[in-house]
């Protein structure tokens, strides 16, 4: 049991680390696409790690199954939400940093 | 530990509220309202009020955010600059706040078991409801049986909200010449995922509806979750397709049918010789009668809430579609 607890704590702590780094990334990164990159990727890995850590804390009964359902649901929906956000931003005409730089150079040069 | 979590959550709640007051960008304000609701839901969970937390998360953070965004699409994104002086309101607010804080000094301690609220009817509900109603989830016993008349009032309020919205905005179906090509049309990923997820959401709504007797949940939450599934459908596949699935007329019938179903349970129990909403008389056994009554009135609540939420969304978004075409 102790072994499982140690693994579960490691998973939970690393999940928290990734979640925190994603939050810092949202504030520190310069434009929309880099921010959503930081948010979505860390979000996915943090979900896997945290729910995985919680799975090891259960006594492998109905709660385990519910947690697995939550994990699957989040694995489907959260990347889709990020994808939809980024695609809507492209559709609305938002340029990435490189493209914006190119455009600026074309204008000046 | 629970105290510390409560303090952190309350501090975050206060910060969110302050930010909402000072922000002028209404889109961000709506998002902060969602965060506010989720934080309150977390506080309710910390207080072991799972049913309330569930309602707060699904109604406060879920459906009201969508409805407020629908309103925002009609009104515009910026708050108008206020030209009035804010001195007098500040004085009024300070005096009221000081009076309220002074009032809390007379209140009993937080979480004290000798509080009047814990001594009045709560012991009776806790001790007698397993024998009288027989449901594992005591919240549902109180909500649907002991306080059935209040809940009927709540459902009527939801129904009245629909009437109020429809008397201001009508649902328009003339969106055939869909000039406003929604940006979601080319979203293949979104289409596939929505097709996958929507049935699961409806299944979960049914689970919440019929599992409300045994665990957290019930008609209000289930209706909102089912409405969220169809709102997702309307957002991804377009409003005309959603109209083809469930038309506005049918929704009106559903909204009134739910209220009627609820009230007719009350009339039926009167017909059987009891009081209004006295479920004991519905079946031969009092406990079985309670079970039947609660399941049927929860179904009525779920149907009404689902229909009202979806029709309000239809009303807002069909107006937006029309103004886009113009």
UniProtKB/TrEMBL annotation, chain A:
Transmembrane segments: 6-29, 36-55, 67-86
Source domain of life: Bacteria
InterPro entries listed in its UniProt record: PhaG_MnhG_YufB (IPR005133)
Pfam families on file: PhaG_MnhG_YufB
Keywords for the protein's UniProt record, in alphabetical order: Membrane, Transmembrane, Transmembrane helix
Protein name stated in the entry: Sodium:proton antiporter
From TrEMBL, chain B:
Keywords, in A-Z order: Cell membrane, Membrane, Transmembrane, Transmembrane helix
Superkingdom of this protein's organism: Bacteria
Signal peptide: none
Domain called MrpA C-terminal/MbhE: residue spans: 115-170
Transmembrane feature ranges: 6-22, 27-45, 57-75, 87-105, 151-171, 192-210, 222-243, 250-271, 291-316
Residue ranges constituting the MrpA C-terminal/MbhD domain according to the UniProt record: 11-76
Membrane disposition: Multi-pass membrane protein
Pfam families: MbhD, MbhE, MnhB
Chief location category: membrane
Claim: Membrane is one of the keywords in the record: yes
All copies of domain Na+/H+ antiporter MnhB subunit-related protein, residue ranges: 189-310
Compartments, as annotated in UniProt: Cell membrane
InterPro entries named in the record: CPA3_antiporter_subunitB, MnhB, MrpA_C/MbhD, MrpA_C/MbhE
Family classification: Belongs to the CPA3 antiporters (TC 2.A.63) subunit B family.
NCBIfam families linked to this entry: PRK12504.1, PRK12507.1, PRK12508.1
Full protein name: DUF4040 domain-containing protein
Protein source organism: Thalassotalea eurytherma
